[in-house]
Fold:
Amino acid sequence: MLNNAFLDIHPEVKAALNEGRPVVALESTIISHGMPYPDNVTTALQVENTIREHGATPATIAIIGGRLKVGLSEQEIEHLGKSGLAVTKTSRRDLPVIMARKLDGATTVATTMIIAAMAGVKVFATGGIGGVHRGAETTFDISADLQELSKTDVAVVCAGCKSILDIGLTLEYLETQGVPVLGYGVKTMPAFYTRDSNFQVDHQIDSHEDIAVIMQTKWQTGMQGGMIIANPIPEEHSMPKDVIDKAIGQALQELDEQGVKGKESTPFLLSRVKELTGGDSLKSNIALIMNNAKLASAIAVAYSQK
Ligand code: PSU
Ligand code: MN
Structure:
C-alpha cells in the first residue's frame, strides 16, 4: 500500500517498512487534545525516542494540509502541540472533509489505525482508547475507536480505558464487535491510572512473543480487525483509586452541568481530571505512555521476525 496517493510516509519510516523492520504508530489527538503544551510536545518526542531505543521506528500519524502523514518532523509535532485544541480532532467521520479541505487534523485512535493500516503498520501505542461513555444508553455516545478495532488490522497497545467511560459496557461492545482484549500479565481490564478494574479481560497473555503469534494467527486466517493489548500502568506510577475516582466523579458532574456533548466530551473530561488532581494525573499519563511504547516496540520486533 506504499503507493497510496494520499500518504506521505517519512523517509525513516519508509526505509523501515521496505526492509521489514519494526514500526510503531503513534496518534496525535493525544498531543493536541490529550495534554497541555509544552508537556505534550516533550512527551511526543520522548515516546519516539523510547521506541527507537527499543529497536523500532516511530511513526507519529497526523493530517497536515490534508495529507496523511506517517511519521512527523519535530516541527510538525511542535505545530500540533502548540496549536492544541485549534487543530481539528479527526475521527473516521471527519477524515474526508479534513483531507478535501487540505486542513490539519489530529488523529484519534480510529483514524490513526486507518492511516497506519494504509501504510502497512501493524502495531500502535497510545495511552487510552475511547469507549462507551457512562450514560450511553441514553446519549448513544460510543467512540468510533471501538468499531474501528473491529475492522482495521492494527494491534493497539493501551493502558486500558479511563473510568470516565463505562468499562463494563466498553468490554461488552468490544465482545459484540469481535475484538480480542488481551491483558498483558493481568486478568482484569486496567483502568488507565490504576492497574485494575472489576472487569475481566478475555485472555491474560504474559509475553510479547505470544502476542505477536496471536496477531499473526488472526491475520493469516484473513479475519479482519485489530485487537487491544491492555498494559497496566507500572505500580510506582499508578494513582490512589479514591483520588482518581473523586476527580472523575466531579469532572462527570461538571460535564453534565455544562451540557458538554459529543466529540468535546473526552477532551473536557481529560483536562478537568488533570486539573483536579493537580498535575499528578499528567505524570501518570506520561509514565504509562512510555510503558506502552516499550511493550509496543517489543511486540513489533517479535512480529517483524515472524
Ligand atoms: N482517552 C485518553 N486519552 C486520549 C483519548 C482518549 O485517555 O487522548 C483520545 C484518543 O485520541 C481517542 C479519542 O481515540 O480521545 C476518543 O475520542 P472520542 O471518545 O470522541 O471518540
Ligand atoms: Mn463520542
Summary: The pocket of manganese (II) ion (ligand 2) is lined by residues 141, 143, 262-263, 265 (CB under 6 Å). Residues 7-304 form a domain with the Indigoidine synthase fold fold (CATH 3.40.1790.10).
